[in-house]
Write a structure and sequence with these properties.
It contains 15 helices and 11 strands. The protein has 466 residues and is α/β, with parallel strands linked by helices. A hairpin with a 5-residue loop joins β8 and β9. α1 packs antiparallel against α2, α2 crosses α3 and α3 packs antiparallel against α4. The protein is flat and about 85 Å long.
Length: 466
């Protein structure tokens, strides 16, 4: 009887090294600063360092500093590193002032620590990247071949050839199909030989890695090829043809000892759920406090310019497609909330003069910060549509309902890229959905902060907001 093996997660050693080195450098920096200036190292510095290390580690993880896809890129990790450290410093100072403990620290020591740490963390990454890059000469890179000129195989080949940091040198793609057939299916793809040619090279130990990238439906052929290479010492990997699917927040999950892979998933699990909610509560509360005078002025303006309630509540879809009540300042003479809701258009007679101003400037959306505090919405996420529009577009826009894998937002990636307001053509809605799904794929706290920042400059007004 064959026993099922358990698939273990392959960790990137350099990612672990960055985590360990970051902690060591933070500790070493304050220790040196303290000994150089005061000649002491007491329990207060130990406590402050522990808090800073813990908060930085958590924030850096959440902001993607240790994301395997970006960890080797100084450009991708520079801003998250600095932001993680600034937030850690802010938290530490808040605690020190709250407990009236600022007098036990040397201001010069802390200043040196606060300023030098991010510079040292960034410099370490730059030096590490240079050393790793220079050490990867042809004699040290691991020779690699790919079996299968599939979309997955071609994408892997491009990745290996374009990024030396993987430490791989591609010898070629091997495929049994004829050159004419491959040209018809994939264009000009250079083939180095057949699978038998690759096997002959493997037996001569001419390469170290074999990546099998055959189509998923060719399971019999995949097993056969893997069996062939069992007569060699090459390391064999399967490249599942996930390009068949449009992956959204895909992740491995073990059900007992059985590994499974999600295709459509939410980015919010465990700690990320807590962080997203904390982000909404903290930023939402601050914004509500700042705009409260403006809310009162707008409410007064609505009351004196047109009859009817100040707040308009409409049924919309929330996370997982559950119905929620979304609040807006009333900007029309009607309050459609049924099976048919007509989108506002240019010159729409239903819009009041004051309401037109509110809609053009997105001020009618401000009551949704109350929805954020209630937990129905987030500050950043796909914009919620009326239920009738959801039911209409889910039938004609591919993957439309996947936008509901997260809470709807007041602002979003689609809005700051110009897709807000009226969607009078199908392609506009398709582009909006495309940006929404890209947001879900790429979500991070840093991405949210970027969208909020950009909203201030380009998200409030638009040519299609009527």
């Amino acid at each position: 009887m064959r026993e099922s093996g358990i698939i273990k997660r392959h960790g990137d050693e350099h990612v672990v090294a960055y985590r360990v080195m970051d902690v060591m450098l933070i500790i070493l920096t304050i220790a040196l600063a303290s000994y150089i200036y005061t000649g002491t190292w007491n329990i207060y510095y130990v406590l402050a360092t522990s808090i800073a290390v813990f908060s930085f580690s958590v924030l850096a993880e959440l902001l993607g500093v240790y994301n395997p896809y970006f960890v080797s890129s100084l450009r991708q990790t520079l801003a998250p590193i600095v932001l993680s450290w600034l937030c850690s410093v802010g938290f530490l100072l808040l605690l020190a002032f709250g407990f009236k403990a600022t007098d036990v620290f040397s201001r010069v020591t802390l200043t040196l620590w606060f300023v030098a740490t991010p510079a040292i963390l960034v410099a370490y990454r730059g030096i590490s990247s240079k050393i790793r890059s220079s050490s990867r000469t042809d004699s040290y890179t691991q020779k690699t071949i790919i079996i299968g000129a599939t979309p997955a195989g071609i994408a892997l080949a491009n990745e290996i050839e374009s990024k030396r940091e993987h430490g791989l040198r591609l010898l070629g793609i091997f495929d049994d199909r004829s050159a004419e057939r491959l040209r018809e299916e994939h264009g000009d793809v250079k083939i180095s030989g057949s699978v038998n040619d690759a096997l002959a090279l493997a037996k001569e130990r001419n390469f170290r890695h074999v990546y099998v990238a055959l189509p998923m439906e060719a399971s019999k052929r995949i097993k056969q090829v893997i069996h062939y290479f069992s007569d060699s010492t090459a390391r064999v990997y399967i490249v599942p043809d996930f390009f068949t699917f449009d992956l959204i927040q895909s992740r491995w999950r073990n059900v007992g000892g059985i590994p499974t892979l999600s295709i459509y998933d939410t980015p919010f699990y465990g700690m990320s759920t807590f962080v997203k909610r904390l982000e909404d509560i903290v930023i939402g509360s601050i914004i509500l406090l700042l705009i409260s005078p403006l809310l009162l002025l707008i409410a007064f303006g609505i009351k004196i310019t047109s009859p009817g309630p100040v707040i308009f509540k409409q049924d919309r879809y929330g996370i997982d497609g559950k119905s929620i009540k979304v609040w807006k300042f009333r900007s029309m003479t009607v309050m459609d909330n049924g099976s048919e809701v007509k989108q506002a258009t240019k010159g729409d007679t239903r819009i009041t003069p004051f309401g037109g101003f509110l809609r053009r400037t997105s001020l009618d959306e401000l009551p949704q910060f109350i929805n954020v505090i209630q937990g129905r919405m987030s500050i950043v996420g796909p914009r919620p549509h009326a239920v009738s529009h959801n039911e209409e577009y889910r039938k004609i826009v591919d993957k439309y309902m996947l936008r509901h894998k997260v809470k709807p937002g007041i602002t979003g990636w689609a809005q700051i890229n110009g897709y807000r307001g009226e969607t009078d053509t199908l392609d506009k809605m398709e582009k909006r959905v495309e940006y929404d799904l890209n947001y879900i794929r790429q979500w991070s706290v840093w991405f949210d902060i970027k969208i909020i920042f950009l909203t201030v400059f380009k998200g409030f007004v638009g040519k299609t907001a009527y």
